[in-house]
Design brief:
123 residues, 3 helices, seven-stranded mixed sheet, single chain, alpha+beta
Length: 123
């Protein structure tokens, strides 16, 4: 069974950010997809009281898994009362476009309302 949950392990979060060439700030977090102890994928994000910025989703070539990770990550924002979500970086822009989650390209904003709609590939 696959579980998707935010990591509470600060060392794990720091290590994932650093593995991706990023520095984890005070607002850094990640959602990890696991089956048992095996990590299948994850998201890296920053969450403040007013917005979430998703910096990376790994893997970005498995669309159903990436869709689940993205939705789980956005769910973290909603659980914190945050309804504004953004993406940054070329890989996130490409993935958000493939998954049809872009709200506004100019503002690099994500359509968090899609969280409440069907998953990628369903129809």
């Amino acid at each position: 069974m696959i579980t998707l949950a935010p990591s509470a392990n600060h060392e794990e979060i720091k290590n994932l950010f650093r593995e991706n060439g990023m520095w984890p700030g005070e607002t850094a977090g990640c959602v990890i997809a696991r089956t048992g102890d095996e990590v299948l994928g994850y998201s890296l994000y920053d969450l403040t009281s007013s917005s979430m910025t998703i910096r990376r989703i790994v893997p970005d070539d498995d669309l159903p898994l990436a869709d689940g990770i993205l939705r789980s990550t956005l769910h973290v924002a909603v659980e914190h009362g945050v309804m504004k979500a953004f993406y940054c970086g070329q890989s996130m822009a490409a993935l958000a476009e493939k998954l049809d989650f872009i709200k506004n390209k100019n503002h690099e904003s994500l359509n968090i309302d899609k969280l409440f709609q069907s998953c990628h590939g369903e129809g």
